[in-house]
Specification:
Elements: H1 8-23, H2 26-29, E1 42-46, H3 51-58, E2 63-68, H4 76-81
Parallel strand pairs: 1-2
Length: 85
């Protein structure tokens, strides 16, 4: 009987695919009902004390990563609403 041969490229790609599935945690892939982190936008808000506040509320399900306004008193509520930004 002949011996089956496996090409090096086929072997390496199959090992890499198996390793990536076993190393990556389920939450990174978006397992279950939660989307993967890469499915959300990172959004920065400028002028969030006025009209920018409403714009941020419209996209509040995304990752709000930065906030900016020259009037800190007027934007204080927005800063409190998104404390991780």
């Amino acid at each position: 009987m002949g011996q089956a041969t496996v090409r090096r490229r086929e072997f390496v790609s199959s090992v890499a695919a198996a390793a990536s599935l076993s190393i990556v945690p389920r939450h990174v892939l978006g397992a279950g009902d939660q989307p993967a982190p890469s499915q959300k936008l990172n959004i920065a808000g400028i002028g969030v004390g006025g009209m920018g506040r409403g714009d941020l509320e419209a996209v509040s399900s995304e990752n709000i990563v930065a906030l900016c306004d020259v009037d800190l008193v007027r934007a204080a509520d927005t800063f409190k609403r998104f404390p991780h930004a």
